[in-house]
Amino acid sequence: MNKDANVAAKRHAAKIVQRLERAYPRARCSLGFASPLELLVATILSAQCTDQQVNRVAKDLFRKYRSAADFAHAKLADLEKDIQSTGFFRNKAKNIQQCCRQLVESFNGQVPRDLETLVKLPGIGRKTANVILGAAFGTASGVVVDTHVARLSRRLGLSRHKDPVKIERDLMSQLSKKQWIVFSHQMILHGRSTCTARKPNCDECVLADVCPRIGVES
Ligand code: SF4
Fold first, then answer.
1. Ligand 1 within 6 A of 192 CB?
2. How much of the chain, in percent, has pLDDT values that exceed 90?
3. From 190's CA, which of 64, 69, 86, 159 has a CA 20 to 30 Å away?
């Protein structure tokens, strides 16, 4: 991207940031957690599952399993049963257990605070690592790109890519670092409430006058 295009892209992003901040001033992670470990487990559970359902399941789960060691030493069949209603429970239980075993063996049961280490843990991809670092430690390691952020980024002309890593790279270059964490929470809220996958409500959208509506049928 040349210098002029880069300045224009940042200006466009700044307008979007301003509107979203006004519309969602209290946006934050909607997964409930009381520790980095709880957020790590909740984030694994949230794949293909609503945050509300994860929060429902997590309430009892975190009463039963209070440490990485508890998850590491649990009977896999019990853990599967405990998280069954979040879907894909066999895979999720396996990932939670393997991840917690590694936390116990290599990190004294604690969740590491850097992206490079986190993404090497079983079941933890870049998106999950960004969620954990941003919400549990307040560290801006990147921009969380989930399905809402990806869809809105394309419609809003912030990225033309489909690959989350490339979308994240575009967003990181257009936003200031202090905006990285909250921006994705605001985009997720806007994606759920207004710019939904099937029927974006452009008529009542706070971004209507700055959005090029790329790929949206009129
Ligand atoms: S104007 Fe339409 S496409 Fe653009 S962000 Fe709003 S709802 Fe989505």
1. no
2. 95
3. 86
